[in-house]
Amino acid sequence: MSWRISKEGFDPSSIELDGSRFLIANGYMGYRGTLEEFGKNELVACTVAGVYDRYDDKWRELVNVPNGLFVKVNYNNTLLSPMTFQDCAHTYGLDLKDAYYFRNTKFFVDKEKWIKIKTKRFASSTDYHLLCLEYSITANFDCEIEIETGIDCDIWEINGPHFKGMSFQKLDGIYVTRLTTNEGKNFAVAETADHLDNFIDKEYLRLYARKSKVKLASDKEFKFYKYMCVTHSIEFENPFDEAIKRINEAKNLGFDYLFEKHRERWQERWSICDISIDGDEKAMLALRFSMYHLLSIAPYHSEKLSIPARGLSGQMYKGAIFWDTEIFMLPFFSYTLPDVARNIVMYRVHTLDGARRKAKEYGYGGAFYAWESQETGDDACSLFNVTDVITQRPIRTYFRDKQIHINGDVVYGFFTYYNATGDFSIFLEGAAEAVFECAKFYYSYAYYKPLKDRFEILDVTGPDEYHERVNNNAYTNRIAKFTFEKAIWLYDILKEKYPNILQEIDSKTCISQYIEKIKEAEQKIFLQKPNEEGIIEQFDGYLKLEDIEVEKLKDKMLHPYEYLGGGNGLATQTQVIKQADVVVLLNLFESEYEKAILKANWEYYNGRTEHGSTLSYSMYGLLAAKLGKLKDAYEYFLKTALIDLEGNYKQYVGNLYIGGTHPAANGGTWMAAVFGFGGIRVEGTKVEMDPHLPAHWKSLRFNLIIHGNLFEFEISNSKILIKSTRLKNSKNRSYRIVANKSEFIHEIGQLLEINLKGE
């Protein structure tokens, strides 16, 4: 059963995609899947989570640090690289199970002679500051090579340079670069090489290297190891000393020991997270690839970090956190790694003050979460996010100030985690305060219309970003109502059970003065209802716009990167939408709609959606699976799962580069498999199951952690098998399982078999 993603041959045009596709990461930093001899021009990057910097008036973004895994090998003064050697056999890729990058390149220096380079590298899952590399060289003849390795400080940056200060130091075989960002944060990047002797230190412009000549005996492998450590002043008072300490510890422990510990940690993760599909190797491998990328970038070590829209694959989208995290990624972590999920939701608690500052900036009450959130919660989103590729003029976009659904998305995330875990403590530790502040914001933003005795939400941008500044977006209004509902629910619980905590929260939020107003808004907020054909209008007036086919609209484009939204975009006066909008609403609030309504809206909006965002496919696939539209569901599932594997995504919006990995699509792939094909819906201690497997799938097996209990599900076309184990601190000993129009009581520790054939 394959766990490897690999490619053969070398294509320079795929360097950018491969760098993202074959990323290694550990939540602290990400290292792109590039060759060891590559540099800035090939987009080598080591991106550090949670450390942002701004240079001059450019966009603030995550920081990339110098490359301590740099290695070049020369033979007869020629670099051994697929870039310079056409006559070579080259294989490279990822081992998903043990989480490492591998490379195997054989260079034919003449008809009968070859030199082979084989490497293996990983981002340590036990010491998040470490990157480790094993580098071996073999030749089938006696020869001499020259190895050059060290720290490459010529950094690929999108909006840099980010280091105003940089100095180099050698210390007992260790190279260390000290760096200071424009905002005054200090870094240390330390590197050392093991089993590499008789070298000469060399300093070039922004490159610090050791050169060593090595004589290779025929068919005898030469191997050395490199260790790279990154530390910074946000977590350490003296990052230099900490880097030296950790790099010495790594060298003393050795590559094999460090890799074995890393491998064991990943086996623990896979023992919970893995999904098995009998009958579809391609889908299973794509699922594992998606989960690998989610597991690689998760904030294991801090609750002050979350997951950026492009993970840790670079500085794209400024390294900012969007609604993607709560709606598309959080379900995976909530039901497989709840401790990580808790860190993700607590990030929003720690950034609440930034959200308060934003609400105040725009003259509203409560808190208004950032559309593009960084470490403080202040909004990194600019007012001109896109450039018109035809006029080269910046386009005013209404993401920062009008995509107010972000508040409801954050609140929905809190309750996704709570529903999966039963962990109410997040609300006592700040999440309740955040919910109250989000509800206050919506109340202050909403408009009460006396003639109709209702609250409306005007002048917003919904998930479909092509239509800006619309009124009563269906998704936005419903997620606002959800926020009101949960604020009321929390207020009542805190008042009854935790009055002292409520009093403390009230001293900061004045929620007691708002709660009756919030109750009124919850009752009277306007929601878009299905029309006679069952269609829910995306926003007021949407159905009156020109109804044109997506491809016919795109035929009018004057440039392949032309932005279809904004004030003058081609889509703005049509019903063509960028991505799922009403369909997101239907997935999140599915139980509120009859199946006929779900079907009518899927069919209506499916034909009018451009899928200009990688977020879109998974939502359409998820709803299609629930509707039993298995051909469509499987097609969208594969499109989502293969986005990063096959590189089927937009790399530019206008002239803005938006490449990199797509963790929201990775999370959407998992949801499509588990919630869509698996048909799982969890509500308290009730687990509903309505599976719809693709015809060629013999079975689907996956695990979920629900309230501290491990559930193992095996679904085939004829039956469902459920086993469960109590893991920790679970108060729930039994669950109601609803499947095949019947209800069963499942006791933890027992086996339940449900027949799907007949009654």
UniProtKB/TrEMBL annotation:
Domain Glycoside hydrolase family 65 central catalytic: 288-671
Keyword Hydrolase among UniProt keywords: yes
Keywords of this entry: Glycosyltransferase, Hydrolase, Transferase
Molecular function via GO: carbohydrate binding; glycosyltransferase activity; hydrolase activity, hydrolyzing O-glycosyl compounds
InterPro entries attached to this UniProt entry: 6-hairpin_glycosidase_sf, 6hp_glycosidase-like_sf, Gal_mutarotase_sf_dom, GH65_N, Glyco_hydro_65_C, Glyco_hydro_65_M, Glyco_hydro_65_N, Malt_Pase/Glycosyl_Hdrlase
The Glycoside hydrolase family 65 C-terminal domain, residue ranges: 681-722
Residues annotated for substrate binding in this entry: W323, D324, K578, Q579
Catalytic residues identified in the record: E465
SUPFAM superfamilies listed in its UniProt record: Galactose mutarotase-like (SSF74650), Six-hairpin glycosidases (SSF48208)
Any one Gene Ontology BP term: carbohydrate metabolic process
One Pfam family here: Glyco_hydro_65m
Family of this protein: Belongs to the glycosyl hydrolase 65 family.
Name of this protein: Glycoside hydrolase family 65 central catalytic
The organism of origin for this protein: Caldicellulosiruptor kronotskyensis (strain DSM 18902 / VKM B-2412 / 2002)
